[in-house]
Amino acid sequence: RSRGLSGRESLEQGHGLLFIFDTLGKYGFWMHDMNFPIDIIWIDENWKVVGVERLVNPDTYPKIFYPTSPIKYVLEITVEEASRLGIDTRSRLIFDEGN
Hints:
Layout: E1 16-25, E2 38-43, E3 49-56, E4 71-78, H1 81-85
Antiparallel strand pairs: 1-4, 2-3, 2-4
């Protein structure tokens, strides 16, 4: 988990990395060894978005980003994808396993 997208050259639009935690918590994320900016989406146990950190750049390291409330999932996606998709704290995410 600590490696995440670190070391990759890019992330294709429409793709992301979903982190699943066993228990609720305020898990921190950083941009260590990242080569591109991302959006970070904080999601609770009911798949409700509780926070969105937009345009997180690699030069923010060593800053650690935390959600404001306990989460069970974190979705890292291409930069500005959260805005493009209209994802905000009123959103509830639904994943289509068929794609």
